[in-house]
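Hi, here's the filled form for the chain we discussed.

Project: internal
Contact: R.S.
Residues: 46
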Amino acid sequence: MARGKWTSEKQKDLFVAASDMPRSPGHPFYVALNKLLAEAKFDAYV
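And the returned structure, exactly as it came back:
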């Protein structure tokens, strides 16, 4: 675009809300770790 020339087009939003992003299923290691900690009732202990 040349200097001093304006168009009627507006720039689109650059940011996306985190709630609009798809969630990943997570890494299998952490899924297994959370299951193990839940079975051991680790949260209640801590």
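Let me know if anything looks off before we file it.
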